[in-house]
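Dear all,

This email documents one entry for the complex benchmark we are building for the journal club exercise. For each entry we list the sequence lines for every component of the assembly. Then comes the predicted three-dimensional structure of the complex as a token string, followed by one or two observations. Please use this as the template for your own entries, and keep the labels exactly as they appear.
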Amino acid sequence: MLRYRQKSVQEADPDTRKPFGVPIYELLTSLKRKAEDGDLPNDVSKHSGASNTVKSSKPSKKRRKISPMLAQKYSPNEFFDLIGNDDSNRRILKWMSTWERAIANYGKKGNKAPALEDVDEYGRPLHKILLISGPPGVGKTTAAHVIAKQKGFVPLEVNASDERGSKVIREKVGIALGSHQVISTKPVCIIADEVDGAEQGFVKSLMYLVNKKKPKKGDTILMRPIIAVCNNLYSSTLHSLRPHCEIVRFERHAPALLLRRLSRICELENISKSTKELTELATINQFDMRACLNSLQFDSGEDTGFIVTDPVLLARSQLNGKTPLTFSQIESCGDHDKMLDTLFDQYIYSDFVDDRVQKPSKISDFYELTDSRFANDDHKSVLVHAFGSLFRRPGANGLSTSISSHFNTTSQQKSTKNLTNAQRYEYKRLSESVLSQVLNGSEPIIRATISKKVALLEFAPFLTKLVCPLNEAKRIESVARALKSVGLKFQLISEEANFNYILNPPIEQVVVYNDKANVRIGQSLTRGAISQAMEQLGLTNSANNTLVKDTSAASTDSNPNTKQPQDNINIPSKRTAIPATGKVWVQFSEGFSNAVRKPITWNDLFDS
Amino acid sequence: MSLWVHEFRPSNFAELDLNERLTDNLRQLCTEEELPHLLLYGPPGSGKQTRVGACLQELFGAGSRRIKIESRQLDAGGSKKLEITMVSSVYHVEITPSEAGNQDRFVVQELLKEIAQTQQIDQNAKHRYKVVVINEADHLTREAQAALRRTMEIYTSNLRIVMVATSLSPIMEPIRSRTLLVRVPAPSEDEIAKVLQSIAAAKRVSVQSDAVLHKIAATSQRNMRKAILMLEAMYAQNEQLTESAVVPLADWEAVIKKEAFEIVKSPTTSKLAEVRGTNYELLSHCIPPQIILRTLLLQILPLVDAKAAPGIIEAAALFDHRIRLGTKAIFHLEAFVARVMNVLSSR
């Protein structure tokens, strides 16, 4: 299907093409055509399959014959193939569109860039770099490539394997950014992968490219988009880069979405896996698409932590003829830390008889051996054995069942109690940065007397208790003054037709433990009053209290799952009405909960 | 006008009314020509920093209150950089090296030396030296303290160091011997209640009975800062402060209190699994593991039999030590809970 489509694009008269990219209309018509052939356009999973079914139509004798890596074979090739993170994908698309327009108009005299609020004098987006962050395996790099291609750019990837000294970059990237490629007439788009691991010099040279303002004679300004991809947004190398970036977060895929795609791939590849097996596979790999496909390919299905630890905790009788692990096997595994983490995660859910909590209490002494700066791998393998001897018991229930049940509950609940380690780490980093934001935003005289620790343990908890006072002018004014002195503001955000006042920086997220969303709605009245009081005092500048509101009823942006409310961006209201050539209904799946409530045209989104 | 804690904070010696003798001694010290290095220690919310502020006011006058915040980048060995926020006036600099974690050594070495090697710019300044206030001195690593001890001696002509700490024991002997130790005791509950009363009067808060003020004082664990914050929160939420009014607890404390109650109520393995979730939650909200352990211990103790207490306290000491040595706090927190459950169910 994909190839077919690209062909149709090539056949089209080049003059009718929009500046560079594949016009959305053509995509739509081809989709429509395909839809008439019986292929539903909105069932994304079928697309990736379509071309492959043709290819694998030769009946293969072997049950599974997998030549290329699955992760590469099924990596999405175009926008409609992308799954999950719909809003992020669209933000990238929108950003790229702005660039496309800017590049098309650049140099043409009299053809001034439309005066939109989010572009600069050359029609470029205000943030010249797009920074995509998220956990590994959710498709950050893929999305960047796909969307770049979609918009008619030639992606030029600069990753950790290349030398990234500042000089090299300035030459290589600098030249590439100014020019079209020789072979094709398409402009280049830089995709800088793994920037959080890059040297400072690389980041500096990126900044240099971005900050070039007035061109001297012969010098060019940056007229090509740069997309940077990272795992850790809060990495110290990115500190200086962040303010110049439009930041897009990628979250882990919703289980259902991922499973659907996985089972589709299994179907195409003739791999027989039950849904339950796939679920387990997905949870073990922490919903990392790439890792899932890799495990699928090599039929491992279990990562090292589980291969080793499962038998350790499992009773001999349950091993189905497998012998329990010997010392040397544990030694040869190598990844001791991972094994330990898995054991620690799981032992408590395994079934052992102990009514006096003796075993967990005993195992703690072994932890001391492993978790100290003198620990080496020998100690760690000893601990694995200790686990085995303490918790193994004939006739115990299989651990796997308890694992899957444990994980199943994990993925459903949203509280911070049941996060994966990585998520917990991320949450902590976020909380820390919010806290220092609050500290640095408060008046110097206050900052001088609060240390970070005191702020966290004493100030912040009571500050959040202050903000729900009785509705009485005197009290509200006093609270308003207090909030002002520590630099907190209320931000009005719209969440599914409800308007909520949320403190900004989002200190509540750091301090409040159980989700009190309902309470918050009840309080929004007084909060509004406080906010007004702050304005009346002339203490806040009104710009910071702007209504961040989605104009499209589809509320394409306010994903309630995003942790930072201020991340919501403003979609400009409908542009000059281009007569819609066709209306498309988009069906949203999990991972993007704001369902579509009215028909929107792609023009709203693509703005082409 | 801001938070009450700041509004009613004494800014000079005349306004300080608790610990009169200590205040007098400090004032005496500040009027003399030479000031020794100081180390103020005492529980949180006892007025250490307030006294440092008063000292600075006495030494340099109002100029010490014209402060600004700046953040500095320091070289931390090789290509690493670390950023530290410092509060400074013309006469003094306030730093919290422990914010740099394990790399506080570089703060002491680089920043302090730099300050020490430059002289007072202001010719009209009352004193030739500058004052460096080191907050959370008890969190300084050993290396940092070692780096500090020589600096303290060499640059005495340009520099006086005032350290603020909660506990004296993590500070090594050579440093203690180079400083004048000043203990700032926590105010008594009566004293806190009195202060609260004066604030309530100034703010025209209707307090029905003084009992509620005493209750706040008790809940705050004799922490003045916390007590005033509590009062303000209560004022915002209640029409009147009656005797039955609920004193709000910080969320994290409430969570730990509940956790302690659950542990004592049913010391079983399944409960251990639940408690793990709570511990993870606390840790991801940035609560330091030592604080979790300490609070948990203090909450558990009143709930258990006196005979079980020694075992529990011993366990707490053991695991506190291990948390300090290790990196995975969750292991040791859970181990502590398991040990407590074991002790409770073994009898």
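Observations: DSSP finds 24 helices and seven strands in chain A. Chain A has a mean pLDDT of 65.
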